[in-house]
Design brief:
- The complex is a heterodimer of chains A (232) and B (219).
- Chain A is α/β, with parallel strands linked by helices and 232 residues long.
- In chain A, the strands form two sheets. In chain A, strands 1, 2, 3, 4, 8, 9, 10 and 11 form an eight-stranded mixed sheet that branches. Chain A has a three-stranded antiparallel sheet with strand order 5-7-6.
- In chain A, helix 5 runs parallel beside helix 6.
- The longest helix of chain A is centred in the middle third of the chain and has 13 residues.
- The radius of gyration of chain A is 18 Å and the shape is globular.
- The chains are: A alpha/beta (232), B alpha/beta (219).
- Chains A and B meet through helix 4, helix 5 and helix 6 of A and helix 3 and helix 4 of B.
């Protein structure tokens, strides 16, 4: 089944204000940067964004924050972003912080048809407030519910016309689970190849989870913390 | 002489055992990787999706797609593996990782830890810390004994929002190594040149002091 759309405009067709959108990536690593740029252009607002982080001030989801397009963020870590902190402390931005493992599993559960699950993470903390607690093997766990989204936007290294995806190194992170949890999943890839070119043994995300795929025009791939050793 | 951050990392490195998978948090814990004792093999897991994390890349060889949980560019060692975030936290929650080392703003004598939020001042989020402390069997906290205002970070009970309850087993600070059991801190070792009295004075929580408190031995 051919999932290819010609460009980012076509890929994001149907995205409207007030929708819930998942965006893959950890920090600035593996984020769908072409789609984020397009969301800025579309001027959609009131968005609920589910993403592990919120970008930095001038890249990633920080671009949407600057334009005040995000109503609510569901994330696990939001440091390194002054505008985010300002909007959160002033109450302009609603923020739901959840443990990283619970966020990943809630997305996976959403895509896998599991409505909720118990986890020990967050027991006895603010995260557990209002959630059901149950003991298993003598240890308390809290009930966490699945997450889904109107659109999930992921970024892969290689993809084929069937929507099969391969990620590179730690740019995989949240992308596979979010791909599963979108009503419409859009994949932007660095390299789009014909079906048959990718080894089926090496596919990370099978095309069944992907509705639209396109090759991104430009990938800046900004590095957040460049740490290197100097040659002796 | 109290320890600097490197000293704390060196002392924690002595806790590593052959064959362990280890998750190191941001800050002092990251430095532990530089002092693995000779003759043992450990593998570092970073929760954003790598096992077999190596040192920082040589200048010019950094790869935007290869980072650690602190978003720093890293390398992958021979035999490394990449995986998604759900798999990563399956390793953590499923107790396949033998040791977690992380920083803290406060630790209480019953093993509670606070390290993610200062109400009204700083909210960066918990990242993977809540999953790590809720599941790991063996958690060592690496931190300074006092905060910037000079107040003890080893308390009867934490005043900041908690990251996890009754989970910390050992704390290594610039002054001492302490175990946490039976709802109290137990002094195990003192930093070179630091007296037991100094440690008692710097610790707000209940501290059990044995008759003999050896000095740490660091290379």
């Amino acid at each position: 089944m051919n999932k290819v759309v010609t460009n980012v405009e076509k890929a994001l067709e149907g995205i409207k204000s007030d929708m819930t959108i998942m965006l893959g990536g950890f920090g600035l690593c593996g984020i769908p940067e072409n789609s984020i740029a397009e969301l800025v252009k579309l001027r959609v607002n009131g968005l609920t964004c589910i993403s592990n982080n919120a970008g930095v001030d001038d890249f990633g989801l920080g671009l949407l924050l600057q334009e005040k397009q995000i109503k609510k963020m569901i994330s696990s870590y939001v440091g390194e972003n002054d505008e985010f902190e300002r909007q959160m402390l002033s109450g302009e931005l609603e923020v739901d912080l959840i443990p990283q493992g619970s966020l990943a599993e809630r997305c996976r559960a959403g895509g896998a048809g599991i409505p909720a699950f118990y986890t020990p993470a967050g027991f006895g903390t603010e995260v557990a407030e209002g959630k059901e607690v149950r003991d298993f093997n003598g240890k308390p766990h809290i009930l966490e519910s699945a997450l889904t989204a109107d659109f999930a936007i992921v970024k892969a290294w290689k993809g084929d016309t069937e929507g099969n995806l391969i990620f590179k190194a730690t740019a995989r992170n949240f992308n596979p689970m979010m791909a599963m949890a979108g009503k419409i999943t859009v994949a932007e890839v660095e390299e789009l190849v014909p079906a048959g070119e990718l080894d089926p043994n090496e596919i990370h995300t099978p095309g069944i989870f992907v509705q639209r795929i396109f090759q991104g025009e430009r990938f800046e791939k900004r590095i957040e913390q460049r740490t290197v050793q100097q040659k002796a | 002489m109290s320890l600097d951050k490197t000293g704390i990392a060196k002392r924690i490195a002595q806790e590593l055992r052959d064959g362990w998978y280890v998750n190191l948090g941001i800050g002092i814990p990251t430095l532990v990787a530089n002092y693995i004792p000779k003759g043992i093999e450990v593998e570092f897991q970073s929760e954003n999706g790598i096992l077999g994390m190596g040192p920082f890349p040589m200048d010019g060889e950094e790869d935007a797609d290869l980072i650690n949980a602190g978003k720093q560019t890293i390398t992958a060692l021979k035999g490394a593996a990449y995986f998604d975030s759900a798999t990563s936290f399956a390793m953590i929650r499923g107790q396949h990782v033998q040791l977690t080392v992380l920083g803290a703003m406060e630790v209480s004598q019953n093993g509670d830890i606070a390290n993610w939020k200062i109400p009204g001042k700083m909210v960066k989020g918990m990242g993977g810390a809540m999953d790590l402390v809720a599941s790991a069997d063996n958690i060592i906290v690496a931190m300074m004994h006092a905060n910037r205002q000079g107040q003890s970070k080893l308390l009867k009970s934490c005043s900041l929002p908690l990251t996890g309850v009754k989970c910390v087993r050992k704390v290594v600070t610039n002054l001492a190594v302490m175990d946490i059991k039976d709802g109290q801190f137990h002094l195990v070792e003192r930093a070179p040149g630091v007296s037991v009295e100094d440690i008692i004075k710097a610790t707000e929580g209940n501290l059990v002091v044995p008759e003999n408190v050896p000095e740490m031995v660091l290379d």
